[in-house]
């Protein structure tokens, strides 16, 4: 991937006046997980991660500026945002304003089509959309690498939602500005690899422990964390080779073990962080049974009980039906590889 190409991707695709802009971003699901921070303040991961951006559950965010807006307002799905959600959005706007040399307040309106905070990557699509919309509204002209660094400051996983299909987010090295510069996302170009991801909606409720608090506790107290972080490096090297070969079975095996290892680190934290529910384990059994019956299907689970199952597109309907049959009332959504965050054409002119 040449630098030129990344720069070209980065330019806003529509003229922007700097007064308001709307962006759309999709969640991404990590096949090699990010868990643990080198720097809490700058939101810098301790480990590399690799993800697939989905083509479902978009977040749409509009950022408006203007003399009539005296103070920042944040609306999420039509309701005023409060508490930590509001604080994180305003902190992000402050960062954009500082870079743009602006003191103007903003009106931020976000619509998530996925349950917020349920381990379905709403913060990834949320901060990717906010980064693209806020940068355009405040007139920041960033290339995709810079934009991914900016989105990372909202939520590290958001840096990966800037890109179509597969993306890697680099862990930080060093400290301060050097660490900030070293941690960004970039695309992993694998045009031949086009799997399905079946999302099993085990529970739509927001998680009891935020991923931010959970990863802090894991790094600080889990004796298993260093071993997982080390093994994750080997997993990343292996999955990149498997992706290039378009080998779904090898990709799935590495992704599943990387995820289960991450959850093992959390279970060993003190006190334990457990996102896996009884229904999660039932779905894992169903995925294992699918494999025994000759269907390649592999699970990955984030900071919540929901399970995402990687499989061939041609098997997706069968996989989804089998998974729905494993837990009463469970619904599924089948995703493919999706687009990176973009300004919505025709808005912001
Ligand atoms: C990931 N997760 O790689 C991992 C796997 C959840 C499990 O990124 O603190 O919301 O805002 O950087 O990005 C969830 O953490 O955390 C996450 P912050 P984020 O997708």
Tell me about this structure.
- This protein has 349 residues and is α+β, with helices and mostly antiparallel strands.
- The protein folds into two domains: 3-190, Ribosomal Protein S5, domain 2, CATH 3.30.230.10; 196-335, GHMP kinase, C-terminal domain (Alpha-Beta Plaits).
- 40% of the residues lie in helices and 21% in strands.
- The chain is built from ten helices and 16 strands.
- Strands 8-7-9-6-1-16 form a six-stranded mixed beta sheet, covered by helices on one side. A four-stranded antiparallel beta sheet has the order 2-5-10-11. It has a four-stranded antiparallel beta sheet with strand order 13-14-12-15.
- A hairpin with a 5-residue loop joins β13 (297-301) and β14 (307-311).
- The longest helix is centred in the last third of the chain and has 21 residues, at 225-245.
- The radius of gyration is 19 Å and the shape is globular.
- The chain starts with a helix and ends in a 6-residue tail after the last strand.
- Mean pLDDT is 92; it is low at 1-18.
- Bound molecules: ligand 2P0.
């Amino acid at each position: 991937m040449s630098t030129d190409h990344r720069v070209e991707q980065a330019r806003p695709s529509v003229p922007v006046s700097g007064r308001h802009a709307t962006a759309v971003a999709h969640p991404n699901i990590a096949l090699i997980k990010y868990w643990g921070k080198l720097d809490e303040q700058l939101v810098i991961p301790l480990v590399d991660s690799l993800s697939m951006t989905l083509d479902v559950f978009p977040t749409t965010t509009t950022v408006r500026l203007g003399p009539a807006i005296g103070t920042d307002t944040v609306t999420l799905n039509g309701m005023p945002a409060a508490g930590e959600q509001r604080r994180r959005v305003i902190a992000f706007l402050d960062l954009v304003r500082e870079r743009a040399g602006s003191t103007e307040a903003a009106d931020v309106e976000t619509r998530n089509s996925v349950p917020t905070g349920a381990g379905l990557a709403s913060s990834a699509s949320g901060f990717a959309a906010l980064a693209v919309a806020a940068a355009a509204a405040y007139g920041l002209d960033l290339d995709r690498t810079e934009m991914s660094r900016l989105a990372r400051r909202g939520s590290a996983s958001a840096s990966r939602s800037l890109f179509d299909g597969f993306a890697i987010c680099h862990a930080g090295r060093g400290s301060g500005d050097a660490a900030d510069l070293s941690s960004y996302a970039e695309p992993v170009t694998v045009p031949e690899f086009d799997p399905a991801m079946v999302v099993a909606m085990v529970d739509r409720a927001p998680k009891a422990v935020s991923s931010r608090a959970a990863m802090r506790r894991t790094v600080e107290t889990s004796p298993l964390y260093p071993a997982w972080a080390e093994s994750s490096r080997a997993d990343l090297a292996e999955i990149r080779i498997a992706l290039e070969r378009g080998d779904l079975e090898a990709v799935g095996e590495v992704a599943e073990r990387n995820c289960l290892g991450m959850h093992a680190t959390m279970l060993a934290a003190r006190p334990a962080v457990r996102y896996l529910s009884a229904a999660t384990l039932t779905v894992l059994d169903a995925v294992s049974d699918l494999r025994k019956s000759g269907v390649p299907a592999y699970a990955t689970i984030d900071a919540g009980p929901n399970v995402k199952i990687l499989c061939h597109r041609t098997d997706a309907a069968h996989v989804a039906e089998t998974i729905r049959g494993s837990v009463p009332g469970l619904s599924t959504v089948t995703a493919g590889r999706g687009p990176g965050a973009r300004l919505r054409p025709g808005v912001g002119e």
